[in-house]
């Protein structure tokens, strides 16, 4: 178990416990560490001072609630844990602390040094079982843990231009899974907040399904055209064509690290995500 050391020390100290009990606030992240993490991410540096402060508070609580484990001998040091926290908490920058309830269904975060190879088993229509290997930069399980490859996390700033962010991708799956039953598959429609878009609960879900389904179908067609006939691939990660749940996850990562490009390509989805994540004005 390689939880962030400064935090672990602070949490276990008497003053740390007392502070949490009486003030309800975990110990502050050291400023120099916070600045270093901000500066390594263009999409965080570009945020307003108010948003950065809100993000820092979210990270402090997030680190208090989650447990980091390094896989394959990787030691998760403070800056790594905070880097992951900052990306994972970004979607709730306008919600504030209530946003972290979306991550209350799990505790563990496992960090791999690099992509992991997973062996998958599928049965085809004839009942024949096939095994294949999949290379993963991240994975999420209902109830946790969330797994991410550090080699992808560390380059988050470079990958943002293309709208990629493995941390936000995996945490978007958690958002999708939250409030669903253990055996209910994520479907790209998270539970919508009360009064979403000023609609009734039923109307909100109808609107969400209608717009996402249309965008997903157009996206799948575009990915297929690019693969078969060499036409221009869509800007968004083609992996989103796997399923509506993957489409939601790649949309969320792009929306959060490169909103202007996402808005150009998916104006109707930007409106839905703006309302969901409470984007101001
Ligand atoms: Zn995924």
| Secondary-structure element string | HHHHHEHEEEEEHHHHHHH
Largest sheet strand order: 1-2-6-5
The name of the CATH architecture of the largest domain is Orthogonal Bundle
> How helical, in percent, are the residues?
40-55%
Considering the protein shown, what is the CATH homologous superfamily of the largest domain? Glucose-regulated metallo-peptidase M90, N-terminal domain
Strand element count: 6
**Which CATH top level class of the largest domain fits?**
Mainly Alpha
Examine the coordinates and then state which fold CATH places here, giving the name of the CATH topology of the largest domain: Cyclin A, domain 1
User: Which structural class is indicated by helix and strand composition?
Assistant: alpha/beta
What is the number of independent domains? 2
- Indicate the mean pLDDT: 91
Number of helices: 13
Helices and strands in order, then pairings?
Elements: H1 5-12, H2 14-23, H3 31-39, H4 42-45, H5 49-65, E1 67-70, H6 78-89, E2 108-112, E3 116-123, E4 129-136, E5 138-140, E6 146-149, H7 150-153, H8 156-159, H9 166-177, H10 201-229, H11 244-257, H12 259-265, H13 267-277
Parallel strand pairs: 1-2, 2-6
Antiparallel strand pairs: 3-4, 5-6
Helix pairs in contact: 1-2, 3-6, 5-6, 9-11, 11-12, 12-13
The structure holds zinc ion.
